[in-house]
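Archive entry. Fields below.
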Amino acid sequence: MKIKTKIKEFVEQSREWTESFSDMSEKRDLPRERVRREEHMVDRLMEEKAGHMGLLKWRRLYLVLATVCAVTLIVVLLTTVAMLPVFGEHHEYMDTVAQYYIDHALEETGAMNIVAGMILDYRAFDTLGESFVLFTALNCVLILLRRDFQEEYRLHDYYDLTRDPILRRVGMVVIPCVVSFGVYVMLNGHLSPGGGFSGGAIFGAGLIFLSLAFGDDFAARLVSEKLFKGVAAVALGFYCLAKGYSFFTGANHLESGISLGTPGSIFSSGLILPLNVAVGFVVTLTMYGIYRMFRRGSFK
Amino acid sequence: MEIFKLILLLLLVVCAVCATLSKRLLVSVIIFMAYSLVMSIVWILLESPDLAITEAAVGAGVSGILFLMTLKKIHRTEIETEDEDQD
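PREDICTED_STRUCTURE:
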């Protein structure tokens, strides 16, 4: 009985503290010293309460353990970094693989950008897993943050930037540049630095900007839920069909039969271009979908 | 060039420390975005431009926006609970 009343007291007091905290965060122009004094008081009160409930010892133990863990981790990581070969220096194990890629990547994959040849041809299998990680992250966000469609979002749930003239004007100039640069990076992945991941990230950032500057309704009309689901399914399905068989062939690749073309032209290097586009769309939709879920909890 | 690299690396360390030590979360987020920008320049100096592009788009752009929106949401939930209490 006694313990129960004590706990009740504690809960009530802590609620008062949190309320005073939220008040404080709104009155930012309070004199600094007063804020600090109040914070100090709250800390002391907390410590007293913790001591009453026998928690103080645990807190000290926790602090010691945390310090020990952090120091061990730092030492282990620093020694590992110290054992790495110096940047840019030759190393007997690393050089054989790297040299192979540098010597053979262009003729075997047809990609001017050797990195693209590596991640979408030699290790396309690996990249398949990566895009599924992204898609899984998107699904988790959808599960956690999605709201019921019937539920109307309340007006004060929602902050509007569309009346900001500066943002709209800047958006009119910047958004087309951002989106077209994203598409360029995506399509040119086998020729120049970039590729699906970076291009998709830029494209997604452009969509987010569009949604911020011109309102969510406008963006929702452009990218409806149907389109979102369709493009994601097609992009991932295409990638799975193109490279998923590696699960059964033990990571050995079959000949795609598509000619590699002349290196340097836009239609070259076989499957790398369509795969880049597929990965790009998955990344774009992940960025945009996470943003929508954070913002409104639905695609409408 | 060496001096420029040193300045960038120092900036990285300063940004990383400041982002963790600053009291206000908004300041932390902005310093974190600055960290990403410096990091993208460092990636270019390390001759990996594709990483630089991704870092600039994701680190300085999208994740910053997500952090800021989360901050906004946290403040908003406080107002909401107050309203409910009044009801």
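CURATOR_NOTE: Chain B is about 90% helix and 0% strand.
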